[in-house]
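Researcher: Next sequence.
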Amino acid sequence: MITKRWEVAPPVPPEAIQELSGYPPILRQILYNRGYTTHALAQAFLEAQPPEDAKADRLLNMPAAADRIKYAIRHGERIVVYGDYDADGVTATALLGMALRQLGAQVYEYIPNRFDEGYGLNLEAMRSLYEAGTKLIITVDCGIRSVEEADPARFSGMDLIITDHHLPLETIPPAYAVINPKLPGDNYPEKNLAGVGLAYKLAEALFSTLEHPGDLLDYLDLVALGTVADLVPLTGENRSLVRGGLGYIRQPHRQGIMALIGVSGLTASRINTGDISFALAPRLNAAGRLDSALASLQLLTSPDPKTTGQLAQWLEIQNRERQKIMREIQTNAEKQIIVDEVVPLILFAADPSYNAGVVGLAASRLTEQYYRPAIIASVGDEFTRGSCRSIPEFHITQALDQCRDLLEHHGGHAAAAGFTVRNELLPSLIERLREIARQQLEEKDLRPRISAEADVPLSELKPDLLKYLDWLQPTGMGNPAPIFMSSGLRVVRQKTVGTDGSHLKMAVTDGKITYDAIAFRQGHWFAQLPPQIDLMYTYELNEFNGQLTLQLNVRDIRPST
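Model: Next structure:
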């Protein structure tokens, strides 16, 4: 069990109190902690105002891409939207495909199979699409590192437009147009759009100049799903898009989202970003992790209630199977990694039995449990495909960049990445990554930080606080749900809950008021809980058996000093 470093934000200074005087004290503290130190900044944040000049045509190469697509629509050319198999890629594929169809395009969707084709553009798929008469391929959520595949001389008469939010290499693919706010020279104000966010901006550019029936805002539900699922920062324009999209999810008009909410057991009107992260997105991802993502794509695009109901049930079955496989991989990987209770600086496990679609989830769990970068890989006949998760102290994609001479493909973000390597080069890759980790991590205190907005007596937690906390939505990456600390609490009662007793349910009091508390994955405290404890927690409304109660969702526990 890794102990966390507890931190509590300092109080708001007098000059900021004056600037933020119109807000209640706790909300004022939260706003200040996040850098919103003036009334104007706070108002823009709370109202989720998008950045100024966030117009689609400000994206580098967007006008050229839009003109090429408009030409294809007017001349009846065959267009293919080429996506990715995760929730961001699937929602982006669904969004752009439906938007183009709405504009009168002859459009088809293509998502590669994770197991047969791997991530991103592949020449065999492009050749097949070319032979079928395709004149224009538009990628979503992939393609920025597909330099070889983008060679315009390879498929004469077929153009390629790349839209991708992943970090580019030094060499930009020689496509007809490349749209990525991270490109050198791109001055678009929001650099952290998800793949589905870029697809939405492309649709925005087209809707602004072509006649169309309907409202572009109707696609914001898909933008919210993919953006939250892909763990991009929920600040700036992402915050604005997701807040708008949550409104459409809470009053769903898309049959597939209705069905997905139904099998997840959620109440549509109360869905938040946590529900997307832990209920809706995993089910959307389940199809692509175990088989093909086409079931998820069809779920999001079909208007038929019977079809979407059956597909949602199928995704529910696959999600349960995915959970089972993930637990098996995690258990097996830990036996490979942890020897004599020694936790290495970078965690690595590989095996031919590991499901390539689930290794990333197992890596994520190991990173969460041990606070180390983790790589879990599936070994094939010729290639090993690995999935990586990391911690703030170690940029995993930059580490892979230092190993590019060993890799067939790689890409990702600071905290998550993937790669393909020839089996005979795998030992060299791991040796080099271990050396990079040693250089960067050996002298660091590798314990996760947990930061509280304020030290708050339980008696100050009032139901009105929930209203103010709701103004902070959507919360997530870059804008976390506020955590509070309370000290010197007495445990009134406690019990373990869950099928395996892994969660702790308790009631705590500060002598003036008593609150129920739930501590997920902290059942180990049951046998060693001291009489008085300090808690880090979020304050929330809990719905159980149709009843709503206030509770503390415990993030960490320590004995009171």
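Model: The mean pLDDT is 93. The CA atoms of residues 56 and 361 lie 34 Å apart.
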